[in-house]
Write a structure and sequence with these properties.
This protein is of the alpha+beta class. It contains five helices and six strands, in the order E-E-H-H-E-E-E-H-E-H-H. Strand 1 and strand 2 form a beta hairpin. Helix 1 crosses helix 2. It is globular and about 55 Å long.
Length: 166
């Protein structure tokens, strides 16, 4: 496991390895609890292990004094509309006791740098509209909301129903 040094000498980052699949799920559950939608987090360790092994998604953990306190799950995406590759952050969480210490900003800077290194032109994520502290954090960093678009989704049952019409 390679530890990545940051500007904070007590804070290191590391990419999730296959054996971290359970920790990814644990942090997604923490995020789900924070977002008041814990029941929507249905990922299981074996599924996450497969995703990580197939490189369909990646995660990083931030460790402060050797304790994991920051988590981000992301994957590559692209847009034919604008002809650009990007990274989409699907999960971003800082343990409550470690918020407002700059660790989220360091982590976001690392992912931004990673996007640039990979030839990406954008970094995107979603944020629940009631989550004012996160919205403030993102705006202070210079993020711009895409307010003229909504995300739509087929759940597994609808996906099967629509697919059966092919």
């Amino acid at each position: 496991m390679e530890l990545i040094k940051t500007k904070n000498p007590k804070f290191t980052l590391r990419f999730a390895e296959l054996e971290d699949a359970g920790l990814v799920v644990e942090y997604m559950r923490k995020l789900g609890t924070y977002q008041k939608m814990r029941d929507k987090i249905t990922a299981e360790e074996d599924e996450m292990h497969k995703i990580l092994s197939e490189k369909r998604g990646e995660a990083i953990f931030g460790d402060y004094d050797g304790e994991t306190v920051v988590f981000s799950y992301f994957y590559s995406n692209s847009s034919a509309f604008i002809g650009q590759r990007g990274i989409f952050i699907d999960g971003f969480y800082v343990d409550e006791k470690m918020r407002f210490k700059g660790l989220g900003k360091i982590t976001m800077a690392f992912i931004s740098n990673l996007a640039i290194e990979r030839g990406c032109k954008r970094l995107e994520w979603g944020c629940l509209d009631w989550n004012e502290s996160s919205i403030k954090f993102y705006k202070e960093m210079g993020a711009k909301a895409v307010d003229n678009m909504r995300t739509y989704r087929f759940d597994p049952d609808t996906l099967k129903e629509i697919a059966s019409k092919f």
